[in-house]
């Protein structure tokens, strides 16, 4: 099972970087976007558009998009009324891509892109009304070595980034702020729920969508999960 996940992730990494099929520009959410080499291609996955349109963007509020990739969700949030957006990614090309798309859509004044391994470079005092990560859901073993930046878009070694997100993100919310995770069934859903419980959280499905993956045979469910305190009602 774990091996299947790695194989799927590696073939997805190929699909996202295949220059013969790869566009320098793409259309999503009725807008045109730039795509830089090596960055997760949002139009090759139905997840980006779905999560972006499902998220309750706080009008006049602050948003942190973790793992921004090409910057679609971060830029869209600014276009939809967020006052200030921080877009973070571990991959330098993703940070640059987000800056390019923020400029393209005239929201550079409201979107700050930073290179950061999870919250490492996010100021400890910064607080957000909404935090979201369309996560790299496939668990890779502790021995896994990342050889290309695109692999950060598919794999999370030993779920270290998920654990950091679940531990850190709740502390970075404003009072009343909301925390979301985009996860899918190529990942280990049971393990995610265990990690949530360890972090004092529970994951509640806000929206989901089932889609057929690249080969026409694999079915994947994409879930927008809201992460709530474990002891909250409901
Ligand atoms: C599934 S992709 C989503 C990209 C983009 N948000 C989208 O929806 O098109 C996951 C993103 O998370 C980033 N990422 C993975 N691990 C990270 C970490 N530890 N810190 C920051 N970003 C990370 C990857 O580089 C990648 O851009």
Would you give an account of this structure?
- With 234 residues, this protein is an alpha/beta fold.
- The protein has one domain (2-229): 3-Layer(aba) Sandwich (Rossmann fold).
- It is built from six helices and eleven strands.
- The strands form three sheets. A seven-stranded mixed β-sheet has the order 5-4-3-6-9-11-10. Strands 1-2 form a two-stranded antiparallel ribbon. Strands 7-8 form a two-stranded parallel ribbon.
- A hairpin with a 2-residue loop joins strand 1 and strand 2.
- Helix 2 runs parallel beside helix 3 (72-79).
- The chain is globular.
- S-adenosylmethionine binds at residues 40, 42, 47-48, 66-70, 72-73, 88-91, 94, 116-118, 134, 136, 152-153, 161.
What is the topological layout?
Elements: H1 2-17, E1 25-28, E2 31-34, H2 47-54, E3 62-66, H3 72-79, E4 84-89, H4 92-104, E5 111-115, E6 128-134, E7 138-140, E8 155-157, H5 160-168, E9 173-184, H6 189-198, E10 201-212, E11 219-229
Parallel strand pairs: 3-4, 3-6, 4-5, 6-9, 7-8
Antiparallel strand pairs: 1-2, 9-11, 10-11
Helix pairs in contact: 2-3
The structure holds S-adenosylmethionine.
Give the tags:
Rossmann fold, alpha/beta, two-stranded antiparallel ribbon, transferase, Methylase of polypeptide subunit release factors, 234 residues
